[in-house]
# Entry
Amino acid sequence: MKKLLLFTTLLLSTITLLGCEDSKEDQKEDPKIYTLTDVYESLELYSDHLEQLTETQTELNEKGNTHINMSFMNDDVYTTYTRAFLIDNLIPYEQSPWEGEYMLFLTNAKRTLDKVRDNIADDLDKDVGESFQPNPEMDFITYRFLFTQEGYLLIDISIRGRLSMLKIGIHDNLIEINELGYSFDQQDLDLDGNPKMKYNYTEFNEASSSLMTSNTNSNLVIGFTSIEEQVNTVLRKNNDEYFLNYYNMDINTFIGLRTENELIKTENYIVYDNYGMLYVVSNSLQEAGFVKLSTNFIEATGYDIVKVSDNGGDTPDEGIYKEDGTPIYKGYLNFDISEDYLFGSVKQIISEDDLSDEYFNLNSLGLDLDNEKCTLEYFNSIRVTNLEDIKDKFTYNDYDLFGNDLENFLLDLIDSDIRNNLRESNDSE
# Structure
């Protein structure tokens, strides 16, 4: 099943983390002396938990199980569906905008934990806290492990000068992960003359929320999701230019905007109904004054047969037909079918001045899509025309993300255990 991803790709090769100091208060019991055996057992526990999480999200993404294959009208091989078959296979779709956001992160985190576990398997008698090279023949890899007072595992890794840090633990049977990949830019100095840190940072709290921030190549990025509140928001800033993406639960719509000097330059809207994506509207075309409207035609009436090329390309006879073979629409179809998802859309390029109901409800193609959201009036009601109208969507912990101090605000969001144990240079020692 195709996933919408708002999102940006995280650095996740390896990770470095160190922990808090023990409390200076008197302890009735001597603090536990951890060894790499404890680290190894923790890595096994966390890896097993992550495997369960990622396995539950495994999806069928192949055509074939429910397909009717046949050769139709020419030598190219098409899959042919009747409208009745498609309607019978419609599945109610519950929008989950955060799934794609963190699934790759969890998969990569598990891969990293497994690699670290394998590398330390012959060093389990060592104490934690000291940097060491797990393999003398691979002296470019350095590890350090610590445990926090709360029992979270901290992993500090350097590979060929690439630094990363990981903090991981399980609380109430829910996993929590903080990950930072970072380096220091000798050409970009702060007010004290110190190299600025460039980084990608991610937090994941199972069944609750996730956070992603980064400061790389003049781009400041923050993306956050709340599973409880069903919020998904991403902001990227590059000088006076902002790229904004957010999911509006109230109207079941993703909205993407590019702004410059407070003016909206391009717009993208993905409108959902009970069966997934209903239509996508975008004015980010090279030709100004035109919009691209991609509409899911599955529920429309007026057609009998859909032909989809098995070659995956733009083939002459792909399209929508009457039962007698009369074409209604010939051209590329964005079509996807699996055991739990069904989607098929047609694309129309329209002058903004000519945009009207007939394009939304597909009357323009001789079809009829009866949905209250398929009107120009509805689209105009959700369209963003003033940046001020949505600025309240872009706050985090009551901070206005359009504020002047975004760079320092994002830096402060990094977990304190990680911040307190950062290396001071890109050197691995």
